[in-house]
Structure formats: C-alpha cells, structure tokens
Amino acid sequence: MSAAPVDQAARDLISRDGLDQTLFVEAGAGSGKTRQLVERIANLVMSGHARLGEIAAITFTEAAASELQSRIREELELRSASDALTDEQRRRCLTAVGELDLAAISTLHGFASRLLTEFSVAAGLPPKIHVLDEVSSQLAHEERWDRFVDGLYAESANDAMLVRAALLGVVLEQRYSGQTTMKDVAVELAQNWDRLEALVSAEPPPIGDLDFSEIDAAMARVCGLLPHCTDP
Questions:
Q1: pLDDT of residue 2
Q2: Cα 199 versus chain centre, distance
Q3: Residues near 106 by Cβ (< 8 Å), separated by ≥ 6?
C-alpha cells in the first residue's frame, strides 16, 4: 500500500473538509490540481452544498475545460453507482450528470460570453451578442483599419495632417518587415479599448499651418552657392 502524500491534509481541505471555505491553492505541474478540483466539485454536489448549475469552473484553454468536464462526469457517474451513498446523495449526483452540459465549465472568455449572452439587456448590450474568436477578431480589425485608412485619404480636411505625418516619418502601414507603424498603435488601442475614455480627449488638438520658412531659407543659401560650383 502506497504511503499518503505529505500534503494529504491540504488535499483533504481542498476536496472535502474545506467546502465552505475560500481557498487559494498553489501547486506545480502534475501535482494533482485537476484531481482535487474534480473531487471538490463532486463533493460540493453530493453533500448538497451547491448544485452543479451554481458552480463556475474556469480554465485557461478550451482543451482543459473539455477535460475537466469529462472528468467531473466520470466522477459523478462513478459515485452514483456506489452503494456507499444514500439515496439523496445518489439523486444529487445523477441530477448533476444531467446538468453537466449546461454547467459553467469553460475558459474565462467562454464564461464572460455566457454572462453577456444570458444577461445582455442588463449589460446594456443588444440581444444575440456573440464573442469573436481570435481569427475572426483579427479579420474584423483588418476591415476596420482598411475603412479608416480609406476614409483618411478621402477627406481633404486631413491633407495637412497627412503631410505633417509624412514629414515626421509617421507611417500608416509597413513598408518593410519589422517597421513600427500606426497600424501597430491601432492594434494596441483596440486591445485596450476599455481604458481609452480617460486617456483620449474627445476633441483632437488643432494642427497649425506648416512653416517652411527655414527650409526655404536653406534652399536659398544652397542656390546661392551654385556660382561657386566649378567642377562639372
């Protein structure tokens, strides 16, 4: 018979003895975190502390969420077949198995999407809202950027700003690999849109007239040197 882990008391607290406590668990890879989480959820359900629909289990990836859901189902089905359970405990486990496909076992993005979908009106959002995946989000941003650039060049009121940007070397899109552009800035702003209201003024600062007097004076001095250029 194998010896109990040295941290067995901590494992019992997570999965069985601390069901009414808020716990923060830090552990390395392969130490059994998922197993403890599965047992904690199963014990919460079996003991009547919570229904499965009242539990949110959040993971980092879709694959991890799918695995967690499968392992919870396996654990609940295994317990429901055990003779050690009371009729009430068995009923709770079987009810949880039936509710598993509707349980909030997902990634953080998936959980947020679920909340916004179910309570869109309360959140001030239109019905049937859906969250774009990474590829769709990137494509949508590309389309917005193209429309923005087209509109930028279409408005004659932007001519002075575009000339100023060209003189300062402010580039809209890449001309060579690795070049930093305003499109990169747009990506950063898009990813942090919720933080912009306090940082960006509603009215853009005015752009003054461009002063070419120093350039004109320099060119005049260069032209004045032409009589001194005697070497063909």
A1: 63
A2: 21
A3: 57, 58, 59, 62, 65, 114
* CA gap 85, 77 in Å, rounded: 12
Rounded to the nearest angstrom, the gap between the alpha carbon of residue 74 and the centroid of all alpha carbons in its chain is 30
* pLDDT range class, residue 61, cuts 50, 70, 90: confident
CB 76 within 8 A of CB 39: no
Question: Residue 222 has what pLDDT?
Answer: 93
Q: Each residue of 172-188: b (16+ CB within 10 Å) or e?
A: beeeeeeeeebbeebee
Encoded tokens for 229: 């250029």
Of residues 150, 203, 201, the one with CA closest to residue 172: 150
For residue 45, the model assigns a pLDDT of 92
The Cα angle at residue 127 between residues 130 and 188, in degrees rounded to 5: 40
Buried b (16+ CB within 10 A) or exposed e, 199-231: eeeeeeeeeeeeeeeeeeeeeeeeeeeeeeeee
- Reduce the DSSP state of residue 107 to 3 states and report it: strand
pLDDT tens for each residue of 159-191:
988 988 888 888 988 888 888 899 999 988 888
For residue 6, what are its two tokens?
Answer: 């040295």
